[in-house]
Amino acid sequence: MISASVEQNPDDTDSMGQPSSAQTFANKSKKVLVIDDTADIRMIISESLVLTSVAGYTGIVAGVALLELAGRLTAQMPQAPVSEPEVDLAVVLLGGAILLAGGLIAAVMPARYATRILPVEALRTE
User: Fold this and answer.
1) Do 41 and 14 belong to one domain?
2) Is 8 in the same domain as 62?
3) What distance in Å separates the CA atoms of residue 40 and residue 88, rounded to the nearest whole number?
4) Phi, psi values for residue 9, rounded to 5°
């Protein structure tokens, strides 16, 4: 955990006595730099799960749309090998669960690695 101390300089206020933008930036930076590791890991994993869920839902919608299109096309063909393509709901739910589990597993290692990097090192420009 990193902590920073910012001292208030009387010259860092505007005409209304409010902190200057530099002082406000320093206070916000201090709040950003004092995040504990578990909050970082939780944030990264939850972001990964949200992105995985959105991608999975988009894939399911696209798959259902393609099956509907294939069903309409094969309905016009009397010799089609498949007359009405469909997918069982249990298979869709199982696929979604596997997708979420994969997203969770894929997020854990980068999240743990990200917590080992000091924020100051990550923000440094060369």
Assistant:
1) no
2) no
3) 38
4) -100, 135
CB atoms within 10 A of CB 13: 13
pLDDT tens, position by position, 28-87: 554 555 567 777 788 888 999 999 999 999 999 999 999 999 888 888 887 877 777 888
Amino acid at 112: R
Strand partners, 13: 19
Task: Reduce the DSSP state of residue 27 to 3 states and report it.
Answer: helix
Query: Rounded to two decimals, what is the model's pTM?
Result: 0.60
| Full domain range(s) for residue 10 | 1-34
Report d(CA 63, CA 99) in Å as an integer. Answer: 15
Q: Pseudo-torsion of CA 84, 89, 93, 99, nearest 10°?
A: 0
